[in-house]
Amino acid sequence: MKMERLIGILVTLLSQEKVTAPQLAEKFEVSRRTISRDIEHLCQAGIPVMTVQGKNGGISIIDGYKIDKTLLTSADMQAILTGLQGLESVCRNKKYQQIMEKLSVGNPNILTSNQHILIDLSSWYKASLAPKIELIQTAITSRRKIQFYYYSPHGEGMRIIEPHKLIFKWSSWYVWGYCVRKKDFRLFKLNRLAELKMTGQEYEIRELPALDMSSEKLFAGSFTVEVRFEASAKWRVIEEFGADSFREQKDGTLLFSFAFTDEENLFEWLLSYGNRAELLKPEEMRKRLKERIKEMEQRYE
Fold first, then answer.
1. pLDDT digits (tens, 9 = 90+) for 144-201
2. I need a surface site. Which of 58, 176, 206, 280 has the fewest CB within 10 A?
3. CB neighbour class for 160 (10 Å; exposed up to 12, middle 13-18, buried from 19)
4. What is the pTM of this model?
C-alpha cells in the first residue's frame, strides 16, 4: 500500500506544476505527517522533490526530471491508458492522445494490444459537454471562480462557485465546489448549467470536507415503493435497476420493490411506462398518482 501511494504521489507531482501537502493528504486519505515522510522517502530514492514554504508554496519536482517507465508494469500501463482513453472521449483537444503516445514510446503496440476494456465517458450531449469540462478543468488548475446559470428541480438562477473537482457518476458529469451564495460545498450537474464562464477572480484553497457521494448521503429521506410491471417491460426494468429488483409472478408480471427519494421523479418515471406499470404502495402515493393521471386526462378532453 505504501509503495502504491509513493508511486501515486510521484505521478501526481509529475502531472502538476505544484501541489500542497494538505491536497496530497486528502487525495491519498492519510495524514500530513505521512505525506511528509513519503516526500522524504522519494528524496532518498533520488527523486528531486522540492518544497517551498509560505503562502504560494508547495511541493514540486525540479523541471526536466523524467520518470523511468520501467517502474510501471504492462498491466499498470494498460490501466493508465484505459483511463486516458475514457477522458479523451469527452475532450476536444489532443492532450490525452499526446500523453498516451508519450507513454507508448518504445512499446507502440501497447495502445492496441489487450484492449478488452473500452471506456466512453461521452454522452448524447458531447458537443455541449466537452467545452464545459475543458473550461472547468482550466478553472480548477488556475484557481478561478466560475459563473453559470443553473436549472434545478427547486428553481433556477445564477451561481458563482469555486470549482474543486470534476466528477463522473451515475452516467453524468458534475462539478463539485464551494457555492458563494449558499456558503457551502455543492454538486452541480453539467447538463443543467448554461452561460458558463470564468469570472477572472482567483480563490484560495479551502479546507475541503470529505466528499461523500453515496446515494444515502446525497438523497436522504427515501421511501420504498411497490410496483407491478407487465412482462413486456421486463427488459427495461432490468436495464435500469437490475434483475434482483423484482419477483416474477406466475402470471408473468413483475413485482418490483425499490427505495426512491423524490416523489415527482418517481411519478414521471412510472408514467413513462404507460399502461405497463401500476403503483401499488404506498397507498397515499397511489392516490396522488391517480389524481395526476386524471389531470392529464382532462388536458386531452
1. 999 999 998 788 999 999 999 888 876 678 999 999 999 999 989 998 999 999 998 9
2. 206
3. middle
4. 0.55
